[in-house]
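Reminder to self: tokens first, then the designed residues, so the page reads top to bottom the way the pipeline ran.
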């Protein structure tokens, strides 16, 4: 074999672990996973911030490819906490004996396609160079932490942390004044937990956000048993829905029912909680008037929960339609503002000017804090790929290829980058889907594709350039059929990172529909991809 490995996989989270198992144990390939962290788990290894928990319901947030894995695992709560998901992924790594093929503490800093070798030369931070026929990125969509460049941060004498690279030993907030920046899914989870520990929490809000109560609690034992007894039913269910979740969107429009019934439906959905709220009506994400009814309902709830009218007004002053930014779910987020030790600063009205030795300054004052928590999100979907300094055929850099935004074929491959697969890459449903469901579909597609290549003695695959152009149009078209692009500042569009090209990145046409497109292309002998023989 002219290569050190048949395939190198970057990342040992949900996607990397399953891809390793599939290529090694189904296709008998020599595979190595390179992982920057000191353990497996990916997102769940890094994101240990207070309150970190998954928004997908536990019984759908696991692999479905193995009945044994399902049978021998017990989720304890309706939504799994960070520590439990991390335990789950370690359980998978042990059960499938994956560890020997995972190289931890190894950050990939370069990957170059060598046309003569017909493979990849991958460089690690500690100077290793490894070659492989295939390079598979399993780096996750939300892995490149984004700390905004606020002047003066280096002068700050306290501690600061980004939620996505949280210290393993935890942070002691007792007796501390904490400033938190960010009100996305992460920030909304942190607030109640930090508020309960800290002396004082000041939340710096730039964009007010919708949130639905999670109503977390112990896992329903009947449901747990039912999943173990009928794993195929649940697998089929999550794979047949728009967002890969274990529930269907109600087949009714808001206008099908009168106002009183709308309210009753929203009340029921609010009481049930979680991402299911979005499924109350089928047109919430496609019709502005329909969306307004959900938005008004939630804003009224915020005003009902939050006692101080000024604070409630700021929290409910939301500038985008419901669910056009990833909708958070929470455990007592809005209730936290009724505590004496929590205050809200509206930095849209009075922006942060700088940070100094003792705290955060806005245009109307200075807020002394001991600890700053950046819940400021990620350079999503492309950041971690670009950080690897990837160059494709004839030295084309991925940064150049994506200078106007990420163009891919199906979110799986990029023209000019042969034998590279991007699991849950831009242009695939990825973050609009329950992640393990999107991941399984991608891993299985890639495995079948590589198996097809082996069977047909093919050594090189890449998409035809025009297919990437066409798919980019498809991705735009799918987004434009929804209200999603109306959230102008969302990370779906790359708008949260200064200088990042604006392009709607995930595929919004629905998971089940997307999967059927991928299947069809595979059945047509991978139409749109070009192959050549082994060198
Ligand atoms: P995010 O959604 O990008 O939110 C970042 C927050 O930081 C926003 O409120 C943003 O304000 C604010 N921000 C950024 N720069 C700022 C600045 N310079 N000044 C003031 N505010 C600033 O990031 P995230 O909350 O980490 O969530 C990212 C994604 O991760 C989620 O959408 C979700 O897909 C995933 N996630 C999932 C879970 C879960 O399943 N439980 C939990 C956490 C995260 P603007 O809105 O004004 O930009």
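Designed residues (535 positions):
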């Amino acid at each position: 074999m002219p290569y050190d490995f048949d395939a190198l996989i970057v990342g040992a989270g949900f996607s990397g672990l399953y891809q390793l198992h599939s290529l090694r144990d189904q296709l008998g390939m020599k595979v190595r996973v390179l992982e920057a962290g000191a353990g497996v788990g990916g997102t769940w290894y890094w994101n240990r911030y207070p309150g970190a928990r998954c928004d997908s319901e536990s019984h759908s947030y696991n692999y479905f490819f193995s009945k044994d894995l399902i049978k021998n695992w017990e989720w304890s709560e309706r939504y799994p906490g960070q520590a439990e998901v991390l335990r789950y992924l370690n359980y998978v790594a042990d059960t499938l004996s994956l560890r020997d093929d995972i190289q931890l503490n190894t950050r990939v800093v370069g990957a170059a396609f060598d046309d003569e070798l017909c493979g990849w030369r991958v460089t690690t931070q500690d100077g290793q160079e490894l070659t492989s026929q295939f390079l598979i990125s399993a780096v996750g969509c939300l892995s490149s932490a984004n700390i905004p460049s606020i002047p003066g941060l280096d002068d700050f004498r306290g501690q600061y942390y980004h939620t996505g690279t949280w210290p393993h030993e935890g942070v002691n907030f007792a007796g501390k004044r904490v400033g938190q920046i960010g009100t996305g899914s992460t920030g909304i989870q942190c607030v109640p937990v930090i508020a309960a520990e800290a002396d004082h929490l000041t939340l710096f809000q730039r964009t007010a956000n919708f949130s639905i109560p999670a109503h977390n609690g112990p896992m329903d034992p009947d449901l747990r048993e039912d999943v173990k007894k009928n794993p195929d039913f649940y697998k089929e269910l999550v794979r047949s829905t728009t967002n890969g979740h274990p529930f269907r969107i109600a087949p009714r429009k808001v206008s099908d029912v009168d106002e009183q019934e709308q309210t009753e439906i929203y009340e029921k959905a609010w009481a049930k909680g979680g991402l299911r709220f979005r499924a109350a009506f089928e047109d919430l994400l496609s019709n502005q008037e329909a969306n307004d009814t959900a938005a008004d309902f939630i804003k009224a709830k915020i005003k009902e929960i939050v006692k101080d009218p000024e604070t409630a007004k700021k929290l409910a002053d939301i500038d985008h339609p419901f669910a056009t930014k990833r909708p958070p779910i929470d455990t007592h987020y809005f209730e936290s503002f009724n505590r004496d030790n929590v205050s809200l600063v509206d930095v849209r009205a009075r922006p942060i000017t700088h940070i100094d030795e003792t705290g955060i300054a806005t245009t109307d004052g200075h807020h002394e804090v001991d600890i700053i928590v950046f819940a400021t999100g990620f350079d999503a979907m492309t950041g971690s790929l670009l950080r690897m300094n990837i160059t494709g055929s004839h030295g084309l850099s991925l940064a150049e290829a994506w200078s106007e935004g990420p163009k891919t074929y199906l979110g799986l491959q990029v023209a000019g980058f042969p034998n590279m697969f991007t699991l849950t890459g831009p242009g695939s449903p990825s973050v609009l889907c329950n992640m393990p469901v999107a991941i399984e579909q991608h891993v299985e597609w890639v495995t079948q594709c590589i198996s097809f290549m082996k069977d047909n003695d093919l050594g090189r695959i890449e998409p035809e350039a025009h297919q990437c152009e066409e798919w980019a149009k498809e991705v735009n078209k799918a987004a434009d059929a929804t209200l999603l692009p109306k959230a102008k500042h969302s990370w779906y569009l790359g708008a949260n990172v200064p200088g990042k090209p604006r392009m709607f990145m995930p595929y919004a046409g629905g998971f089940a529909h997307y999967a059927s497109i991928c299947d069809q292309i595979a059945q047509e002998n991978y139409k749109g991809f070009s192959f050549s023989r082994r060198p």
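Residues 53-55, 142, 148, 181-187, 189, 204, 206-207, 326, 347, 352, 375-378, 431, 489, 491, 496 surround NAP (CB under 6 Å).
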